[in-house]
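Lecture notes, structural biology module. Today: joint structure prediction for complexes of two components.
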Amino acid sequence: MNNVIEVKNLTKVFGNKVVLKDVTFEVKKGETFGFLGPSGSGKTTTIKILTSQLIHTKGEVTIFDESLQKKTTKDYLKKVGILTDNSTLYERLSVYQNLLLYCKLYEVSASRINEVLEDVNLLSDKKTIVQKLSKGMRQRVVLARAFLHKPKILFLDEPTSALDPVNTKHIYKGLRKLNEQGTTIFLTTHDMVEAEELCDRVAFLHQGEIKLLDTPKNLRLKFSRKSISLIVGEGNSITVKNDEQGAKQISDYMKNGQLLSIHSNEPTLGDIFVQLTGSEL
Amino acid sequence: MTFSLRRVSAILLKDWYDLLKNSYILFTLAFPLLFAVWLGNMDVKSSYSFVFPINLALVICGCFVQAAMVAEEKEKSTLRGLLLSPATTLEILIGKSALSAIVTLVVIVASIFLTGFKVPSLPLFSLSILLCLIIYIAIGTLLGLLSRTVMETAIIGMPVLTLLGMGSVLKETIDNKIFAKVVDFLPSEQFNQIAMNISQSDNSGNTGKSLLILLVWVIVSLAITVITYNRRRFDK
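The predicted structure, tokenised, for the full assembly:
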């Protein structure tokens, strides 16, 4: 089984509004797959369908080689971890009490609590009441809860939205560790830096349709501006073409000792998205 | 997936830890006991004054507290976490009802002691309490599911709770035969009837009839609650 998720011609209609239109993609076992797009592009709808919170209008969804409709939902939910934009904790309880509840619901040992809290760097706050935690810390506890039972697939809907860089780094660290342990991660985000940092492959979703799907590296190469920026002489910026003539120019600047710095003009995923859709993220 | 007592007890234990820190619920639970103390100290004692605190315990602890607890899970989106866990509908509903059931029973027993009520026929009295407990908790769960916030339970629930808690008084003050007939079939009135019958050793079959009506209430309230839960738990 190479693909853990296979989605074919997925369509979701709310009333008269087509939110997802013939969306097709697959997620390979052990990869981190990014579903990228601006708010309202259909990312959350997709994740809700994949986690049995919504029923799709048309198309096929196969997870672990079995149609999603045929799965006994509760058995399926045992194998996946979910972090959505409205995942919350019991505020009057401690971090430990919150996680203990889920240990019992998933029938895993309470000793897992220390392990997951260490992964999200919150072990020292184990006994803290959730009410006293910052937003970033709460999000880390929710993430810890999502992978408490070592899920085969982890679904993350905007896991670091509105978090500061320090908390974001902690979450990235935890996710990378989990991915190294074999968990497949399905991530939705509108943060292209996050996608570049975490994802093996990304799909660009725009107005309910997938516009592009590839590895970040291939996308950057494909959309390369085929030019190189140089800073030469006394700090002047110039751009040369990435061809034979450009190579000669660079060589000349180097020979004359005038080349101060050289930058390939690779586009970011954000640049590619804007170029492709004409929409800002 | 089979029924898991471990999951039910996990939800119960979570609710217990939460209750200990929830002053709003703790204060609400004390309310029927204050009434029981007040009625227990009154000189004139009728069978109604004994049964009223028990009805109040059922309405406030069984119904209102349950509604507030379910509504809070909805308001703070923690119910979604339970729904997306391996816990089944039955496990969640039983787990979420268990604490309300236990505290209601504790408050009822305390009310009986505080009012000095002599329980006439323990098996029949216990059976009617059990049936009422299921009905009130099911109605409480339903009110919680229909409310978006804890505050809303007061608005949605108040007419229901007033009718269940004060039905007898309202029947006397509102001169309307249809209303009186409706009140007569409420679980609170049936419970009053059972308590009265067994105190007076009435063997006319009225107790059996009241128990049967309570049983119908159990079936209908549970069915409506489960259907509402299944319809409201996920997004459309």
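Point to remember: Residues 225-265 of chain A form one domain.
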